[in-house]
Amino acid sequence: MRPAYFPERRGFEETTVYDRARLPPGDEIRGPAVVGGGRLHAGHRARRKRTGGRHWQHRGDAAVTAKLDAITLEVLWTRIISVVDEAAKAIVRTSFSTLSNEANDFACMLTDARGYALAQNSGSIPSFIGTLPATVRHFLREMGAERMQPGDVLITNDAWMGTGHMSDVSVLKPIFHRDKLVAFSATTSHMPDIGGRIRAIEAREIFEEGLHIPLTKLVHAGRQDDTLIQLIRANVRTPDQTMGDIWAQASANELMERRVTALMDDYQLDGLRELGDELFARSEGAMRDAIRAVPDGTYRYAVHHRRHRRARSSSRSL
Fold first, then answer.
1. Cα(91)–Cα(101) distance, integer angstroms
2. Residue 75 to residue 67: CA distance in whole angstroms
3. Dmax of the chain from CA atoms?
4. Predicted TM-score (pTM) of this structure
5. Listed residues 274, 297, 313: the one ending a domain
6. Which of 157, 183, 152, 179 lies closest to 168 in space, CA to CA?
7. Backbone angles phi, psi at 216, to 5 degrees
8. DSSP states of 104-127 as a string?
9. Per-residue pLDDT reduced to its tens digit, 212-258
10. Strand 33-35 with 11-18, pairing
11. What are the angstrom distances between the C-alpha of 241 and each of 38, 211, 232, 281, 294?
12. What's the structural domain count of the chain?
């Protein structure tokens, strides 16, 4: 038994862990359980087929990732990483400002339909990859998946639902496969200007920081919102560069959409939830193992401030 994280419950449960390879055909497992890294939720059951192989029959919405052996998982994960890395290259090559193509002040990410991160581009900014999945979930909560449709492009720079900085614009695209919402492509990029005070750090309130774009659609089912575009252009000092960078993000999102749907066709996937659950379970296990390997003790570190040329030390006990 060990605690396992179940995203739908947003918490940990004491869970029995099974080695899938050692389970004989015909054995039935009752949730909650972890089977080969995949989760079986409470109240659900799974049974290994007697015909052999690695396929399972399950009842209920059980996340038993029996199809994802180590090789398949590595191939799929490597491929989705290549998707976000290709999208990042597209932003560098098509953006109008040097903030993206020289300063690398952006990030690209793929999430599953629940808004849980699957992969981010290799050179992404840590703060952005931490906030983008939350932004996707804000859209799901505020707008609802039922109001999203193929061809939509979502946009916001809301400080509370984005990065905390209104100069960072988040652009998302819901990805549909066979009329089903399966994923989101998401990008965040620092704009060359978003209006407001020139020195945003001197702003006394959020309204001085610039134009506020709420959670909304930039493109509705393939048709761009010309009024919103005019509003953005009228409120920034660099309209061509700002909108050029936003369209570069939208293009990167569309590229990720094409690559993801092609991947799902190639491997006959109905969705990405199974892949996500496998990645989350393995990541959780690797992190727990790494933390468990740290010896108990007191650890000290120092931070050096060049201006005052003095160090501040701190300690933590484990």
1. 7
2. 13
3. 71
4. 0.75
5. 274
6. 157
7. -150, 180
8. --EEEEEEETTS-EEEE-TT--HH
9. 999 999 999 999 999 999 999 999 999 999 999 999 999 999 999 99
10. parallel
11. 45, 15, 11, 41, 48
12. 2
Q: Give the pairing type, strands 310-317 and 298-305.
A: antiparallel
What's the domain range around 47? 2-66
127 and 59 in a single domain? The answer is no
| Tokens read off for 254 | 């569309």
Say which amino acid occupies 86. Answer: E
DSSP H/E element including 186: strand 180-190
Tens-place pLDDT, residues 79-122:
999 999 999 999 999 999 999 999 999 999 999 999 999 999 99
CA 56 → CA 27, 41, 45, 66, 67, distances in Å? 10, 15, 10, 6, 8
Show the tokens assigned to 318. 């484990």
Residue 314 lies in a domain: no
Same domain, 105 and 193: yes
Query: Which tokens belong to 1?
Result: 């038994």
Same domain, yes or no, for 53 and 173?
Answer: no
- Burial group, residue 94, by CB count within 10 angstroms (0-12, 13-18, 19+): middle
CA-to-CA distance for 137 and 113, rounded, in angstroms? 9
Instruction: Report DSSP state, residue 24.
Output: P
Task: Dig out the tokens for 119 from the structure.
Answer: 């992969």
Rounded CA separation 91/88 (Å): 5
